[in-house]
């Protein structure tokens, strides 16, 4: 398989991410697509540590660190300042985790989307508050272990569908992507860069530490998530026009995705069947939205 991935690097070597970190690799791919004329806004999250201690940082473009709940509004302000100066060729990108997006930051994100402020908002989703001790977030899947939802009482609520929440704002562009398909990721970031208004990109970003998995399985887990329809790859323009980017010829059982992850090792057969039914339901709903039979 041939990938159309730009060769130039916009991250320095020596960042402090854990081995196999999906969030670190995702940033590398995103910057390859966006280039050096980018400003990155990072709230409290794993990436506020990965970037390195002041005055050093891992990214070649400038980085603005901000409070947990303010990734979207900080990006809106930076973009407004650039526009006033006539600097219209700089892309502003918020880069936040699932806690800073689905939970703490959703108020600022929703407000920016309602105004259609011109920036790219990225949620790199590792499905828990990994930076502060692996606590559950509203992105944590049903049945998953975290330090606040132990195996005896795993998470009992379904994962919040943040992509559909953003699509409901009728923003110009929303998409899902993952590291197993780097060409898809590069294309979607380039497309988002070309569109004026609020763009939302949801990245499936495994955390080997929090998911209790081997670091070298990071890309494989991403592919299993897509091939089992746990995390479909799709995009939507203006809340109406859906495109599914990858349709598995024969979806693999969701159990194959769950099995390599220790955070799901306590699941019973009945619990796995429940997850499979939920995945099947969401997949059929997505196909209806996209007009796929």
Note the main sheet.
8 strands, mixed
Mean of all residue-level pLDDT scores: 96
What is the alpha-carbon Rg in Å? 18 Å
Number of domains: 1
Number of strands: 8
Strand line-up in the sheet with most strands: 2-1-3-4-6-5-7-8
- Known CATH architecture: 3-Layer(aba) Sandwich
User: Which structural class fits the helix and strand makeup?
Assistant: alpha/beta
Helicity, as a percent range:
25-40%
CATH H level, superfamily name = Thiamin diphosphate (ThDP)-binding fold, Pyr/PP domains
In words, what does this structure look like?
- The chain has 293 residues and is of the alpha/beta class.
- The chain has a single domain, classed as 3-Layer(aba) Sandwich (Rossmann fold).
- Helices cover 37% and strands 15% of the residues.
- The protein is built from eleven helices and eight strands.
- It has an eight-stranded mixed beta sheet with strand order 2-1-3-4-6-5-7-8, sandwiched between helices.
- α1 crosses α7 and α3 packs parallel to α5.
- The relative contact order is 0.13.
- The mean pLDDT is 96.
Key phrases:
alpha/beta, single chain, Rossmann fold, eight-stranded mixed β-sheet
How do you describe this structure in short?
With 293 residues, the chain is of the alpha/beta class. The protein has helices spanning 22-34, 46-50, 71-84, 99-103, 106-115, 162-167, 182-194, 208-211, 218-227, 254-258, 269-290; strands spanning 38-42, 63-65, 91-97, 119-125, 173-178, 198-204, 234-237, 241-244. Strands 2-1-3-4-6-5-7-8 form an eight-stranded mixed sheet, with helices on both faces.
């Amino acid at each position: 398989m041939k990938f159309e991935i730009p060769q130039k690097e916009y991250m320095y070597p020596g960042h402090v991410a854990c081995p196999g970190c999906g969030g670190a690799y995702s940033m590398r791919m995103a910057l390859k697509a966006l280039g050096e004329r980018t400003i990155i806004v990072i709230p409290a999250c794993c990436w506020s540590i990965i970037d390195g201690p002041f005055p050093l940082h891992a990214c070649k473009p400038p980085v603005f660190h901000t409070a947990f709940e303010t990734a979207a509004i900080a990006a809106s302000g930076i973009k407004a300042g650039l526009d006033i100066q006539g600097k219209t060729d700089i892309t502003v990108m918020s880069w936040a985790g699932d806690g800073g997006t689905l939970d703490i930051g959703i108020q600022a994100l929703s407000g920016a989307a309602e105004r259609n402020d011109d920036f790219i908002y990225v949620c790199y989703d590792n499905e828990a508050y990994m930076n502060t001790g692996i606590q559950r977030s509203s992105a944590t899947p049903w049945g998953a272990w975290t330090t606040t939802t132990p195996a005896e009482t795993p998470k009992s609520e379904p994962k919040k569908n943040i992509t559909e929440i953003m699509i409901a704002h009728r923003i110009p562009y929303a998409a899902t992507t993952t590291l197993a398909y780097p060409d898809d990721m590069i294309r979607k970031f380039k497309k988002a860069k070309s569109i004026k208004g609020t763009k939302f990109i949801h990245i499936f970003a495994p955390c080997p530490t929090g998911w209790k998995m081997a670091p070298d399985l990071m890309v494989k887990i991403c592919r299993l998530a897509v091939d089992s329809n746990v995390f479909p790859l799709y995009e939507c323009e203006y809340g109406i026009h859906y495109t599914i980017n990858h349709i598995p010829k024969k979806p693999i059982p969701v159990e194959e995705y769950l099995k390599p992850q220790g955070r799901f090792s306590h699941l019973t057969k009945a619990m796995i069947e429940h997850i499979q039914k939920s995945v099947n339901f969401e997949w059929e709903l997505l196909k209806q939205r996209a007009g796929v039979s």
